[in-house]
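Same chain as my last thread, 280 residues:
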Amino acid sequence: MPWSERTVERDGVRLSCRDWGGSGPPVALLHGLAGHVGEWDDLARALSPRHRVVAVDQRGHGASERHPHDTSRAAHVADVVAVLEQLGLRRPVLMGQSLGGHTALLTAATHPDLCRALVLVEAGPGGPNPEAPAEIGALLDAWPTPFPSLRAAAEFFGGGAVGESWAGGLEGREDGWWPRFDREVMVASLAENARRSFWEEWASISCPTLAVWGQRGIIPPQEIDDMFQHRADIRAVSVPGAGHDVHLEHPDALLQALGSFLSFLGGVADDPATSGVRGN
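reply #2:
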C-alpha cells in the first residue's frame, strides 16, 4: 500500500487521513460532501514523488467519526488546522473540492499564516440557498441502498471512473453495500451554507489562489464573475466538458492545472509523470 493511515483526534472526534509520505512541499486534500478520501488517490499518487501529500476523510465521512456532535463550518476548519499541526504539514497548498473547497477557503481566510496557497475545485463563497439541505437529502434518499454489488453501485453513479470512485466510498455489510456516512449529518453540514454567503471571507484571503471549474459544473457564472470582482489576482481554469466532479471526470486536466500553479508558486518541473508538478 503506497500510503499509510494516520489518525488525528480533535475535541473527541477521530479524523482518518491517508498520508502518502514524501519529504517535499506539503499538499493537503479535502473531498466534498458525501465523498471520501479515496477520491484523491490518483492525484495523490502523481504528486507524492515530489510532495508530502495527505488526504483527509472529513468528519462524518469514511473512516472518520460517523456521528460528530458538531457539523459547523468552524468545526470543519478546526479539523483542518488539527490535521496540519498534528501531522506536521507546514504551510501546505490546501486543496478542496465542493464543500471541501469551501472548508479550504474558510481555513485560508481565518488562518492566513497556515497555508502557502489555496486551490478550489468547483467551489466558491456561495450564497443563501434555503432549499439546499432538502435537495441534498432528497438526492441521498434516491440512492437505492443497499446496493447489491459494487458494480451495481458504480452503474448507478454513472459508470466509468466517476461511478467507480463513488462506489469506492461504500462499505460492505451482510445485506449489501451502504454509504459510509449518515444522511442527517450530510444535511446538517450544509446548514450554514444554506443561510448565508461567505464573500467577506473570500475577499480577505491573501495567499495565491487557483480556482478550477467544470464547464458544466454547478458554480453559477455570476458567482464566478463576483469572485474575480472581489479578488482580481486569482488564477482560474475552466475544464471543457467537465461537471461538478472535475477531479474524477478529467483528472489529467486537473493535474495539468495544478502543475502549472505549483510551478507558478516557484517550483521547477522535471518529472513528466507529474505533468510539470513540482514545488520549491
